[in-house]
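INTERNAL AUDIT FORM
Audit reference: QA-55
Scope: verify that the stored structure record matches its stored sequence.
Auditor: D.O.
Record contents follow.
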Amino acid sequence: MQSFPAVDPIPLPAPVWLFKLLHIVTLSLHFVAVEMLLGGLLLAVILSLFRSCSPAAVAARALSRRLTVVMTYVINLGVPPLLFAQVLYGRALYTSSILIGTYWIAIVFLLMLTYWLLYQFTSRLEAGRAGWPLGLSAWILAGFIARLLSTNMTLMLRPEVWRSMYSSSAAGIFLPTGDPTTEPRWLLMLAGGLFIGGLWMVYLSARSTFREEERRFLAGVGGKIAAVFGLVYLGAGFWAASVQPAAVKFGLTSHALYEFGGFAGYGWIALVVSGVIVATIAGFGRIAAGWLAWTGALLALLIEITFTVYRDAVRDLTLLSKGYDVWDRAVVTNWSVVGLFLVLFVAALGVVGWLISVVARAQKPMEGAA
C-alpha cells in the first residue's frame, strides 16, 4: 500500500460533508463556464471563417463578445472548488501539483495569455477583420490548460507513480504517462464544450437582440452541433467509466456512501440524452423558442451537477482503494463562523447571478450591428 503524507493535525473547522457540498456546487458552476468557453470559442472561430455569410458573422461576433466575460467566470468560479479540494485532498493534491510544478505554475501565465488573445480576437471581429488565428490560438491554450488540470486531478489518485516521477525530476518538468483515464476525461471535456456551446447558441437564439434570420441560424447550427457532440460526449463518458479500476466500479454499486454517485451517473446519461433531444428539435427544426432555450440551459446546469457528483464518487473510491479515506478527519466545527460563511456564500452567488443579468441586458439592441 502506497503511503500518503501525514494528515494535518489541525482539525477541520466544518464537517466533511459541508466541504464536499460546497466543492460540488462551485465546481459544477466552474464546469459550466469552462464548457461554454471551450465550445463557444471554437464555434466562434469556425463561424468567423464565413464572413461573407451575414448570420454566421453575427453569430461569431455575438459569441466572442461574451467570451471575455465567460473567461472571468471560468477563473473566479475555479478558485473556490480548488480551495475546497485542497482542504479535503491536500495530502494528495499538493503532492501531485509539486510533481508537475513547472506546468502547474505555468497555468497562471497561460491563462493571462489566453485572456489577452480573447480580447484581440473579439476586437478583430468587431472591426470586420479576420481574427481566427488569434481565436484558434486562444482555444489551443485553453485546451492545454484543461489538459494540465485533468492531468493533475488524475495524478493525485496515483501515489504508486509519485516516487518514480520525483526520481526522474525534482523540478516538475515531466508529465505522467500510463493513466488510462486521462484521455477519455480530456475528450469528455472537449466534446462537452461543443455540446454545451451548441446549447448556448440555442439559448442565444431566443434573444430579441437578433433578427429573425439570425435567430433561426443560431438555433439551427447550434442545435445540430449540440445534437452531434452530445452523442460524442455520451460516448466519452462511457469510455471514461469503462477504464475505471474494478474497485471503483464495485464501490459505486455496493458502497452505501457512494451509491448516490452511481445513481448520479445514470442521471447524467438521462440528462445528456434529453439535451440531445432538445438540441435535435431546435437544430433540425430551426426553432428559436424560449422554452427550448431555457430547457437547454437548465439541462446544461443539471448535466454538470450530476457529472460532478459522479466524478466526486469516483475520486473518493479510487483514493479509498489506496488507503486515503477523505471522511477520516478530525472535525471541530465553529458553527458561528460556518453560519457567517454560508450567508456570505449565498450572497456572493446572488451577486454573481445579478452581474450575469446586468451583462445580458447590456448587449447591443441589435446584435447584427458591428
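Auditor finding: record pair retrieved intact. The CA atoms of residues 106 and 145 lie 9 Å apart.
Action required: none
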